[in-house]
Each structure stands twice: as C-alpha cells, then as structure tokens.
Write a structure and sequence with these properties.
29% of the residues lie in helices and 18% in strands. By secondary structure, the protein is of the alpha/beta class. The structure holds manganese (II) ion (MN) (2 copies). The site of one manganese (II) ion has 6 residues, from loops.
Length: 317
C-alpha cells in the first residue's frame, strides 16, 4: 500500500512565486502537529527587545521572502520533502501586552508540538522566546546541548530590572537546568560590554565561547566537527540570532554589532549540525522595519530551510 506523498512546497510553475498565501516555503498551513515530522512556527513577540523593536513582524516577512525557496538543496543534496512530512503551523497567539503571560502560552504550544513527535523550527520574534521554547524542549528531552549563534551572550541576570527579556534567556536556561552546559557553544559574540568580564559568566558555566574576531576569515567547518564530536547522541537545540551575522548582510535587526559572521560561515554552522540529534531550532531577531531590502528576512528564511535540511531523517540525493 502506497503512503500518500509528503507535503510539497507550492511550485513556482503552479503559481507565480509572488502569488498565493504566504506560508513558510508555500507549504500547507496545518492546525495540528499530528502526523508531522517537522513544522515551521511563528512566534511574533518583540516586547522583550532592548533597542529597536520590530521582530513581531519577523514571522510574516520571513514567510514572504521564503516564497523564493525551492525544495532541493543544491549544495548539500538534502531533499527534506522526500522523507519528512512538513507544514507551517502558523503563529503562537502570544499576549503582546504581557511577556509574563506569553511564556506559558509559548511553552504550552511547543509541548503539544513535541508530544506529537514533531520537530519545531521557529520564526522569531525576539530572543526572549528561546526560554519558553527550551522549557518545553527540556521537559520532553531533558537538558539539551545548544548551538547558540549571536552577537550577544544573552546571559544578563536582568535588564532594567526584568528577568525575562531578549538578553536573559540563556541565564534563565542555566538556572532552570535546561542545558547541558559542557555542550553549549556561543558563536559570533562581539561588540561592547557592560563590564569587561561579560563573557566570563558563560565560560564559568562550561560554555564554549567563540568570539567573532577569533574566527574572522576562517571556515567554521572545523569548529562544527568538534561540536558534533562532543555533542554525540545528546539532544541538541540550535538557536540562531540573525545579529550573529554582520549587519552588512543582516542589518534588519534590533541590536546590530559590526564585525560579525559572514553568510558562508552561517551556512557552515547550520550545515555542520547534520548528524546531531537536532530536536528543534529557531531563527530570531529579524526586524522588518529595519530591513527595507528584505535581505535580512530572505537570509533568515534560507537559514530556516537549511535547518530543516539537517534534521535527522532527511534524505540526501
Ligand atoms: Mn540574542
Ligand atoms: Mn543578539
């Protein structure tokens, strides 16, 4: 008995790429994670932003730019839709007036997705959302390894007196024992600090901090070899703040810092996650009001596609 074919992105030969409803990659919109291997989910929360707001519009703009993406990965050979059932689950209905009330809404949404055996790929939203997502992930899988790409460590104890904000999620994640701290990499950190020892706190937790200037002009493939070896079979989460990439390529974001990663380095990081047990991933901090060309959202959309391409079970052609 033949099983029905998996969902496919709507072809540009069936409907022009500028036409139709703008779901992620023009996949079907689903209202349940049942039967899905992976799903794209938007979390339009930006009230945790410390500087330029606008990431609430990220999911919608990433979906619009994703209309250009075709199914087959011509660099890696990945053919995600040949082997996985994938859909767009729409947006989490966060409470835009209350971060506190939004946290359990997000965690509950992801708990239902994970309970269905579906791997979530998240369109942010600001980086605050990594905390409620990691709460759901750890409740399902236990503490996880983490690959965190960012200009910032996001380990502040508080911001303006608040413990939940876009610069605090990984401090809270450590406190709540959501992470395997000896299997955490923070890649792309840079810029100016509030204190000279800002990056020492994550190092004291056991994180590996890879500052951007340490890897300028260099391939990140060797680093990712180390990541895969040390992560081993542990469940691993990938949290990708678009501001890890240089603002020359991704200036449409809330807290830009000069001297960042290049686009090929970003691709090496995501592609280097193939072979780990990736239980979920996010792409956060795309702020369309600062992205008049759409390039930042386009890059975000492509990185989310690359994340899909490295999920366990994706066939190579
Ligand atoms: Mn961040
Ligand atoms: Mn950042």
């Amino acid at each position: 008995m033949n099983t029905p074919p998996n969902n496919q992105p709507l072809s540009g030969n069936a409907m022009p790429r500028f036409g139709g409803i703008a779901t992620m990659m023009r996949l079907p919109l689903a209202d349940s994670p049942a039967g899905l291997d992976a799903a794209f989910i938007g979390v339009p929360l930006d009230t945790g932003t410390s500087n330029r707001a606008g990431a609430r519009f990220g999911p919608r703009q990433i979906r619009a730019e994703s209309a250009l993406i075709r199914p087959y990965n011509m660099a890696t050979g990945a053919a995600p839709f040949d082997s996985l059932q994938v859909a767009d689950l729409g947006d989490v209905p966060i409470n835009t007036y209350s971060i506190e009330k939004s946290m359990p809404i997000i965690t509950g949404f992801y708990a239902r997705v994970l309970a269905a055996g579906c791997r979530p790929l998240t369109l942010g939203g600001d980086h605050t959302i990594a905390l409620p997502i990691l709460r759901a992930i750890a409740a399902r899988h236990g503490p996880v390894a983490l690959v965190h790409v960012d200009a910032h460590a996001d380990v502040n104890d508080e911001m303006f007196g608040e413990r939940i904000a876009n610069g605090t999620p990984f401090r809270r994640a450590v406190e709540e024992k959501l992470l395997q701290c000896d299997k955490v990499w923070q890649i792309g950190l840079r810029g100016t600090g509030y204190a000279a020892d800002d990056f020492d706190w994550p190092r004291r937790q056991g994180f590996t901090v890879v500052q951007a200037h340490e890897v300028w002009y260099r391939s990140l493939a060797p680093l990712m070899d180390e990541v895969r070896e040390r992560v081993g079979s542990a469940p691993c989460y990938l949290s990708f703040d678009i501001d890890g990439i240089d603002p020359a390529f991704a200036g449409g974001t809330g807290t830009p810092e000069v001297g960042g990663l290049t686009v090929p380095q970003a691709l090496e990081i995501v592609r280097g996650c193939r072979g780990v047990n990736l239980v979920g991933a996010d792409l956060v901090e795309v702020a369309p009001p600062y992205d008049p060309s759409g390039n930042t959202a386009l890059l975000g959309a492509n990185l989310l596609y690359e994340m899909l391409c490295v999920l366990p079970g994706v066939a190579l052609r």
